[in-house]
Design a protein that fits this description.
Elements (H helix, E strand, L loop, with lengths): L1 E4 L20 E4 L7 H7 L5 E5 L7 H4 L7 E5 L8 H6 L3 E4 L5 H15 L2 H9 L15 E5 L3 H12 L3 E5 L2 H9 L3 E2 L3 H7 L2 E4 L13 H5 L6 E4 L10 H8 L4 E4 L20 E3 L8 H22 L2
Length: 312
């Protein structure tokens, strides 16, 4: 079977132990992101199986109509809006998704929290420029860590923050609030109180049509001038342009962002990169070797089982 793995930005897929599972196949690994369906279909000529790394490429009718040999798609993680399931079903293309853990993203969220509080990136940059100690950081201990969305990732971030001595404050749907109460964590008295009281606020809700634009300009304006906003979930959870405007106005005073509306972000194209009070990272939350071994290993297993079943 001819298999294509899309958007391997780090050129790491072939170095994974799980890659041995599909070495018997004809495998094409694309390291360059290609969004144009005509250009991409030219690269994928004859491909029978696609492996998608999260939501990096939109796979819709414009692309699928140009891939007549495609039989199966293996999605790392959950199927999202980037994959047109109706078009896949109409063409008889089998689609599989994989199960992952929240550990990698939870750990990265904690890294962003601590790096922001301690001004780590700016201090390292200063040191490399010959400048020694120019800021005074803050500790997480004793501060209010707001968790918006107490799912698998949110729960792990909250637990880590609790262990470090932060006061956990939760807001979200009733399920999140109930889970917080069961664990002995505080639930904000209102949405307004949640944004106003959080010293560090982590957006960790799941993106859906109901949560798109969940965080508004009004919400951000309620935050303290020394508060920090962390978004390692999805850019679309924040109202368009609201965060850029809020940071320019100084509420919150700082943000650390790992996700963007259009990815990859190249050549400093995103307005958040122009702001001195925003730390931007290139969607690294789930990008970790153990996570890749797990996700891609399952994806390759799906393809092998599909091939076995097809030859019976």
């Amino acid at each position: 079977m001819k298999i294509a793995v899309l958007d391997d930005f780090q050129d790491c897929v072939k170095s994974l132990a799980c890659f041995a599972k599909i070495q018997k196949h004809d495998v094409l690994v694309l390291n360059r992101h290609v969004s144009d369906p005509v250009e991409l279909s030219g690269l994928l000529k004859g491909v029978q199986a696609l492996v998608l790394i999260r939501e990096r490429t939109y796979v819709g009718e414009a692309l699928l109509s140009r891939l007549p040999d495609l039989k199966v798609i293996a999605q790392t993680g959950k199927i999202g809006r980037h994959l047109d399931m109706a078009a896949c079903q109409a063409r008889g293309i089998a689609v599989f998704e994989t199960e992952g853990t929240a550990v990698a993203t939870a750990e990265f969220t904690l890294l962003m929290i601590l790096a922001s509080l301690r001004n780590l990136v700016s201090e390292v940059t200063n040191m490399n420029a010959g400048i020694w100690q120019r800021t005074l950081g803050r500790q997480l201990h004793g501060r209010t860590l707001g968790i918006l969305g107490l799912g698998r990732i949110g729960e792990q971030v909250a637990q880590a923050g609790h262990t470090l001595g932060a006061r956990i404050l939760v807001w979200g749907r009733e399920g999140s609030q109930q889970k917080a109460r069961e664990r002995g964590w505080a639930v904000a008295s209102s949405r307004e109180a949640f944004f106003a009281q959080s010293d560090v606020l982590c957006i960790l809700a799941r993106l859906s049509p109901q949560t798109q634009g969940l965080v508004t300009a009004h919400d951000l304006a309620l935050m303290k001038p020394d508060a920090i906003l962390i978004n390692t979930a999805r850019a679309e959870l924040i109202e368009p342009d609201a965060l850029v405007t809020a940071l320019r106005l100084g509420r919150p005073g700082f943000a650390a962002v790992d996700v963007y509306e259009q990815e990859p972000v190249m050549a400093n194209r995103h307005p958040l990169q122009d702001l001195p009070n925003c730390l931007c990272s290139p969607h690294l939350g789930f990008v970790e070797r153990d996570n890749y071994e797990n996700y891609l290993g399952q994806a390759f297993d799906h393809i092998n089982r599909f091939c076995d079943n097809a030859t019976r």
